[in-house]
User: What shape does this take?
Amino acid sequence: MRVLFLMLWVGASSWGYAQGVQLNGYVQDAASGEMLPGATIWCAEQSVGVGTNAFGFYSLNLPEGKHALTVSYIGYQQEPVEVELTADMRLDFSLNAGVAIAEAVIVGEGERIEDAVQMSRVEIPMDQVRKLPAIGGEVDLLKTLQLMPGVQSGGEGTSGLYVRGGSPDQNLIVLDGVPLYSVSHLFGFFSVFNADAVKKMTITKGGFPARFGGRLSSVVEVQMKDGNMRETHGTVNVSLLASKLMIEGPIVKDKASFMISGRRTYLDVLTRPIINSTNAQDPNVQTKPRYFVHDLNGKVNWRIGERDRVYLSLFDGTDDFGFESTETYGESSSFIDFGLDWRNRVAALRWNHEWGPKLFSNVTLTRSQYEFNTGVEFRESFGTVGDSNTTRLASLYQSGIVDLGGRVDFLYALNNRHSIRFGGNVTLHTFNPGATTFQADFEGSINAIDTTLGADEVGSDEHFIFIEDEMRLHPNLKANVGLHAALLRVNGTNFSSLQPRASLNYRLPDGSAVKASYARMNQFVHLLTNEGLALPTDLWVPATDRVRPQTSEQWALGWAKTFGGVECSIEAYHKAMTGLLSYREGASFANTFNSDWEDQVTQGVGEAYGLEFLLQKKRGNTTGWLGYTLSWANRQFDEINSGNPFPYTYDRRHDASVVVMHTFSDRIDLSATWVYGTGRALTLPESVFRTFAPVNFTGMNPDLEGTTVEVPGEKNSYRQSPYHRADVALTIRKEKKRYLRSTIISVYNVYNNLNPFFSLVDVNEDGSKVIREYGIFPIIPSIAWRIEF
Amino acid sequence: MAHRILNVLRPVVLGCAVLASLAGCEKLSEGVVREIQFPEHTPELAVTFLARPQADSLVARTHSSAGILDTAGSQKIKDAEYTLTHTSGTTVSWGGQDDWVQHRGHALTDVDLELGTWTLTVEAPGYETATAVQTFPPVIDSLGSYAYDAEWTLVDSTFSWDPYWKSGFRSFEFHLTLPDREGVDDLFLLRSAKKDFDDEGSWESGQVIWLESLIEDDPRMVWNESLHGFIIQDVPGTQALESLPFEVQQEIWGEDLEEALESAPRLELVALSPEMVLFYRRLDEIRNGGGGPFFSEPILAYSNVSSGYGCFGLYTSTAIDLD
Assistant: This one.
């Protein structure tokens, strides 16, 4: 509360400052009319500047008179502009995409790292993302984020994010303002985001402004392309894993546009000849496996007038895995059908309105749905001539979550010292934490079974309001101070929290900046997951009267400076977490099939701290970054590991990445990455013993039944081998009359290091036991084609 | 020129890619053996001794624990010596090679352990002595201060007198009321007894008895795989242990079906010590961890044996014949 009072006091005290005139408008791509979020407008003589918001809107207060402005955006040509201001003025800027190789073109770099109040925030330009090596040629946004310090992968090939010692459920991943609950395809091996449909992606790891809430560890904002306002364009991508098509263009030139993008994998199509050949060898046994993934992104953008814009965003992503097998012998047959599918569906309707040169609002209505289904059906029929006997057994497990949300955000550019954001949000959650339906039909005397077991649907409503002020307290001191107040109502229980946030930026005389931040965060939803593997079976569950919400307090201190186009930042952080959820020892998602999930869980606390170092070059022919993290992450649960603290599974002492992209000419790019991470913490059995149970508890028989019990060591006291891998990609472009063709040749895991995916105690043929590590991805060369028209 | 070089290099690069992939795939299937330095394991005694009063014969088993990479595994210790000491001073000793019965363990015969608290001491050469303390639960019976009440009715019976396959099926509804002491955890096991047929295990004759709770997800009882029965416990906030409903199904087959049907299905009702329940519950969690080793959180075994592993458990029991 004190922070709020301080903010209000500072805000109120600023009313006395001299009022100038207001310059406002949008910054957009000159060719497509696409809005550019995060572009900067800088007035050197006044030493003031402003960045565009997520919709490309800016509002800058300047004294009356002539001013030289510089408009810049990462990857675009810097635009010097002269304006003469006599009254409030509306001015839109259009920037041309910069071609780094071209001569005499100054390519902008956006806001310099030492200028930004916000710390612990990283943006990777999409054109860099598309150049990076990718497994199977399928570029993945979240895997690119894993190359940043403080962001770790869950394991070989997986797209889960572990940010500053947090778990994957602690990341708020929003697509055009809508939270997504599952962002994985192919059991986590790549994410749902189609790079061709994405305009911008940022991750915030700490120092969260008050407008963000609901998760402890990070906010990943993904913005879909709005669609080209002037011309119809598209891209076609063909890789070994999937094909993609994206088309964008005007509906009404400079008024309305669309973007539609689809992707489908074809593992099922590629493996069909092999399956058919196997089936042909034994006509009695027919197997039909299937696995495909498809995504559909769509967006419509309509400029209703000078002051109003409407955006409709849609996303649908599905994984469908399963197999059918039929065995026929004479009149008898058996049939089994196993299926597992999960699906995300998201819709967002947003309305921007400029209330005046200083006030901008955005209203968002959202619907987000995630569902997971798995089922198996077994039919068996024994037949003799004129008679048959059929048995049918089936079970279906379903879980999911549906959110309906409404949000309003205001941006009020009070003056050059204060930019205030405020707003609120309501989300109605409906959780289905898992229900199993069993069906059994027997021909004969036993009755059929049709029953549903598991937890009931849980409804809850989550509300928050926020206010934050990005302020310039002194020529060398900037701050963002805010307050986020949240409330959850579930089953008659209310949880509320006040979350103060603060970030400071102090410029030192040498031009570098010292930054500090504090954020208290609260999370009302939990992901019930096992540490071993992230699966679509993971359950989203709400805080309840038995399971309290998660909270965190994060402090961070950093230093940043740009050395001739190379940004350097060092950050230290400490994060304390409470209310962390884990399955009890021995429990897993399988236990939730027929019992209440709340009985299977336990709660504890966690602590993470570390040091992150990032050296990033964003412009020139050679770009890339070098990241290193030294970190610790521990957990403590009263009911796990005898109550003793233990390292988090993804506690990674050292994590390093090197990313280099070089443009040789306008025809050829080469990129390479190398990553290294300390091995994952794991629990191994250390010893065994035999124990017994009585055959009978009454009577004469004293026999015992024996079993061997493994005794695990302390939880997560062992480490897998360190993870390291290098990837390279070569992009060769060829300009044709009507399109640009790119051939992307990439090699994943160039030196074929078998990075461990899981470890087992294994028995050799000679009876000796060993610890054996199994990997899943060897060296994988791949080729992909991209056509832009 | 560049095109020529590319044309020459293309098959070479493709060949290298295929070879590299094949080499990588071989590594995948075999995995990579990794030396992990485990702390040196000091073998300890793993003791199992489960006893009831008025038993003709009781068996104790002691094994040595073994390091996980030890190929010999957990070995039985025939030299183990056992001493039971009652708080009243009564002492019972057995064990060593002489009391070892092949395939069973160290047999203790013709003993009638008195109720109360016993201390078990297990000694074996080269091992630290293991000890454990247990108290008998009250004697469960149909009469007395710790009495149960059971009622049952036959609800279904079908028989097939086909000369090639004689079989019968009977279903009972069974209601059980258990004693519930104030302020004390009363713990029970209800299970079907294994019948001793002359040719048990053969396909020609035999029987199977199933026991099912008629209350779905009853928090008072949990099926225990290790003990093949329901562990029943009074849970605060739930109904007392009164008239717990079960269905008992018996399937019986064999040449002498008529004779076999004269033998009623038998249930065993056991009053367990809390430590015994903890041990077998945890054992079940270890053996049947939901989702298997990849998915479930690892579990430490429970033991009430100091300086060792295993369980010293005392129980009282009674048989209930549904005739």
About this structure: Chain A is about 5% helix and 60% strand. Chain A touches chain B through 80 residues (CB under 8 Å).
